[in-house]
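Worked problem 6 (solution included).
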Amino acid sequence: MKKIVPQVPSLNVVESLEFYSQKLGFGDRWQFNQNYGGVRTPLELNFCYYDNPDFSQNYVMRFEVEDIQSHYQNCQQHGIVYPHGLLEQKPWGVQEFSVLDPSGVLIVFYQRLSNQ
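Solution. The predicted structure is:
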């Protein structure tokens, strides 16, 4: 295997592309049509239109980052931190926080604690 490219369910692909590029800092956007597109930097994600919100509202992605504080501050500035997912240290040795994308996909950013 070479890599994993998640296919993320989206209720609106254009809105998802804007959210991931403008608020989360993903670049190199591409779009095939209104129902399919993606981002390639720093990770590759594809977005596919699904008209059933259950698909996206039951989808979770976890991203390991190096500087959790700067990611958290960026998401706070954009007002996208999930109220039930504020930055906190977890007993399994990470600091993490959560964001919901416009379709309801839960995105968890985490950083491993150095002493774990």
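Discussion: The beta strands are 7-10, 30-33, 36-39, 45-49, 60-64, 88-90, 94-100, 106-112.
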